[in-house]
Design goal:
By secondary structure, this protein is mainly α. The protein has helices at 6-27, 35-61, 69-72.
């Protein structure tokens, strides 16, 4: 795995987590036209999220001064900026 700094890891983890929440919210809508495609994307992003969480926890275990995982990826509700 390429070496990335902790700030980039933190930003990537938060961005992927937000994307997972977004796709989960889409699956809950009744007007979704292609749930299979969204499910595939959700699977991909969940895999990425687990990988990033593992890397983040490894950095914490190495003694890096990072906030606890639970403090940075809290459940969020997706808000559509066009509404």
């Amino acid at each position: 795995m390429p070496i990335i700094d902790n700030e980039t890891l933190l930003a990537a983890l938060q961005a992927v987590y937000k994307t997972v929440n977004h796709y989960e919210a889409l699956l809950d809508t009744e007007t979704l036209r292609d749930p299979e495609n969204i499910s595939e994307l959700l699977f991909f992003y969940n895999e990425a999220l687990e990988t990033l969480k593992g890397a983040y926890e490894a950095e914490i275990n190495k003694g890096e001064n990072l906030p606890p995982l639970q403090a940075i990826i809290k459940p969020t509700k997706f808000i559509d900026p066009q509404q």
